[in-house]
Amino acid sequence: MTVKSDMEKAIAAAQSALGTYAQFASSTDDPAAKQMFQQMQQDMQRHVTMLTNRLNYINVHNKLNQQSQATQQATQQNQQNILTNKK
């Protein structure tokens, strides 16, 4: 498991929790519970933002990720060259 995939899983989990808290806040008539769920929703939004920022940083600065992207681009270019030469 890589840090990148862990971050992606963490973001998905945080987004799911954010949606759950939003749903709970909108479906309750209890003012104290509504306030609590809204606060939890705001906290989770901060988590999503922090995780997303970190994932973006990893995508830009991780040398292994850059090598992987370069390899993928080279493979795509080779495939396009093969298709072009077949015509």
TrEMBL record:
- Region (Disordered): which ranges? 68-87
The Low complexity compositionally biased stretches are: 68-81
Top-level taxon: Bacteria
Identify the InterPro entries for this entry.
DUF1657, Ferritin-like, Ferritin-like_SF
The name this protein goes by in its record: Coat F domain-containing protein
Query: What organism does this protein naturally occur in?
Result: Thermoanaerobacter kivui (Acetogenium kivui)
